[in-house]
């Protein structure tokens, strides 16, 4: 019998030491904080996606420089055309026929 009483008192002590349910106001406040945190994270994620989708000015400059370098170093060949000779590899385009 003493063992049962002692076990009952231990169980009662453990139950009393458990945290009680949060008041509704505390739950609402924590949910609001969580929602604010999630909105901020979503906003930062969208901004990061926007930045990643646009090439940086440095990347645009490197691409432009690479294109110009290719135009300078690619061999130029003359291709016969029925009306005119076209230089391939040149970054300059022949004028369009005015019709």
TrEMBL record:
One of its GO terms (cellular component) is mediator complex. Residues 24-51 form a coiled coil. The keyword Transcription regulation applies. The keyword Coiled coil applies. It is found in: Nucleus. Gene3D superfamilies: Mediator complex, subunit Med21. It comes from the Eukaryota. Keywords: Activator, Coiled coil, Nucleus, Transcription, Transcription regulation. Its main location: nucleus. This is Mediator of RNA polymerase II transcription subunit 21.
């Amino acid at each position: 019998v003493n063992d049962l009483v002692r076990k009952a008192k231990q169980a009662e002590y453990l139950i009393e030491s458990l945290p009680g349910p949060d008041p509704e106001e505390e739950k609402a406040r924590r949910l609001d904080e969580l929602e604010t945190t999630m909105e901020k994270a979503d906003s930062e994620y969208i901004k990061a996606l926007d930045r990643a989708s646009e090439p940086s000015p440095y990347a645009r400059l490197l691409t432009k420089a690479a294109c110009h370098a290719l135009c300078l170093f690619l061999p130029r060949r003359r291709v016969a055309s029925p009306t005119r000779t076209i230089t391939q590899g040149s970054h300059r385009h022949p004028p369009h026929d005015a019709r």
